[in-house]
Amino acid sequence: MSVPNHLLYTKDHEWVEFKEEYAIVGITDYAQSQLGDVIFVEFPEIGEDLHSGSSFGEVEAVKTVSDLFAPISGKVLSVNEEIEDAPDLVNSDPYKKGWLIKISPSKLEEKDGLMNFEEYKSFIS
Fold first, then answer.
1. Sign of the CA dihedral with 7 first, then 50, 53, and 80 last
2. Is the pTM of the predicted complex or chain greater than 0.85?
3. Is residue 14 a part of any domain in this protein?
4. Is residue 63 part of a domain?
5. What percent of the chain has pLDDT over 70?
């Protein structure tokens, strides 16, 4: 399983990459491997306010449907529209082309509750 060391992670298997003005959110390589082939992603509305730990959409795979949970609170800035036409990007490239949403964080202190890559690797092993 790929676990990039520059990202932060949740126990629900989402990852977060913090940039200067926004954060990018996706699901981990471990999550996509457990789900199987992704066939559809339900996204939140742009402008929607998310609260840490709340559901913001779903990933539908051949095996199952799984909720997506916000790793941090903030406003949805954009969604990865490429996934609407090619949901398999979540499987083939979960950390780059398979990202899900970009949000403007509203509570940066929530970053402290996320796992670093070493903690996440221990969590999934």
1. negative
2. yes
3. yes
4. yes
5. 100
Residue 92's pLDDT band (cuts 50, 70, 90): very high
pLDDT tens sequence across 10-41: 999 999 999 999 999 999 999 999 999 999 99
Q: Which CATH number goes with the domain that contains 82?
A: 2.40.50.100
Q: Classify 101 as helix, strand or coil.
A: strand
Cα 93 to Cα 32: distance, rounded to the nearest angstrom: 10
Name which of 24, 49, 9, 33 is nearest 100 in CA terms: 24
> Does residue 121 belong to any structural domain of this protein?
no
Are 70 and 10 a contacting pair, CB within 8 Å?
no
Residues spanned by the domain of 45: 8-107
Q: Does residue 98 sit within a domain?
A: yes
Query: How far apart, in whole angstroms, are the C-alpha atoms of residue 106 and residue 91?
Result: 29
User: Over 90: is that where the pLDDT of 113 sits?
Assistant: yes
* Structural domain total, the chain: 1
- DSSP annotation of 106: S
pLDDT bucket at 1, cuts 50 / 70 / 90: confident
